[in-house]
Amino acid sequence: MQLQNDLLLRAAKGEKVERTPVWLMRQAGRILPEYRAVRESVSGFIELAQTPELAAEVTIQPVDLLGVDAAIIFSDILVIPEAMGLPYEMVEKRGPWFPNTVSSEEDLKKLRIADGANDLSYVIKAIEITKKNLNGRVPLIGFAGAPWTIFAYMIEGSGSKTFSKARAMLYRQPDFSHRLLQMITDSTINYLKAQIEAGADLIQVFDSWAGILGPDQYEEFSLRYISQICDAIKEVPKTVFAKGAFFAREAMGKLNCETIGLDWNMGVAESRNLIGANKTLQGNLDPAALYGSPEQVRQATQNMMKQFRGSRHIANLGHGVYPDIDPEMVKVFIQTVKEFR
């Protein structure tokens, strides 16, 4: 199907664009009353994500209501451990929680390498429905968590400020850690290929907990597995977003992907210098800037856009949009990007 708006794909590939494309991480949900109404119609986040028709509906809402240049499928990075045999729960106001964790050879034997099309058929179905209902208006982004981030949750059992159990595992049992990371990587490649087969036009890998590792450990236990994913996915453009991995920007410039996402703590000029001219940069407005007045949001957005001017760029925030941000301020951000020349 011919896309009516292919700005995101052209920008990712470094092709000429009339203006900078814009979308937001975590745009599918959170800030929109329309999303909350759909979520309240079911038992919670997991049921919503596992109901393809509803997941498709909330995926498309930001395209209709905010005017973004891409949709991103409504799902969760933790569907991968569940598909591997380690189910999780989403606890209100606390986040994800795993009743069981991985800490031994016996635990590892209970896991399997997930087959994306079958083990995660509800996400694949949601992508198919979304593609049909978008009808070529904008591209659809598929995504997965980076293996290190998934590993961290599988070992720790929940979110954490330090992920000390997961990090201890890297020191105490490096071989065990590599075997689990490889299983996660193989599962993720299967999953992303199934998303692409179903219609995803671009994929993004989220390394949410990149910044809690030191440079050497990040190289060994994260970047090598992200690199495997990038090498395996040849069908569509790829974006890698590693929050807090400021020390790995030069190495990330060598990844076999088109776009590197920057968080809001990463200087644009320095990042461009480290990453090089042959990658598109995505980001990187501080999400908290959207708490300002319309004029403040416009000014902050223009300041960001000036820093990226003249180079390959996809406009976004430096992390996911916060749930209590006014959707009207998000619209100011999006409109300011669209008007910037």
The Cα radius of gyration reads 19 Å
Q: What portion of residues belong to β-strands?
A: 5-15%
The number of E-state strands comes to: 9
What is the H/E string?
HHHHEHEEHHHEHHHEHEHEHEHEH
Determine the N-to-C terminus distance.
29 Å
Strand order of the largest sheet: 1-4-5-6-7-8-9
Explain this structure.
The chain is an alpha/beta fold. 48% of the residues lie in helices and 11% in strands. The protein has 16 helices and 9 strands. The chain has helices at 7-13, 33-40, 45-49, 52-65, 79-84, 105-109, 116-119, 121-134, 147-156, 164-172, 174-198, 215-232, 249-252, 268-275, 294-308, 327-339, and strands spanning 71-72, 89-91, 95-97, 140-145, 202-207, 238-242, 259-261, 280-285, 313-317. The strands form 2 sheets. A 7-stranded parallel beta sheet has the order 1-4-5-6-7-8-9, sandwiched between helices. Helix 14 links the parallel strand 7 and strand 8 (280-285). The longest helix is centred in the middle third of the chain and has 25 residues, at 174-198. The radius of gyration is 19 Å and the shape is globular. The model has no long low-confidence stretch (mean pLDDT 97).
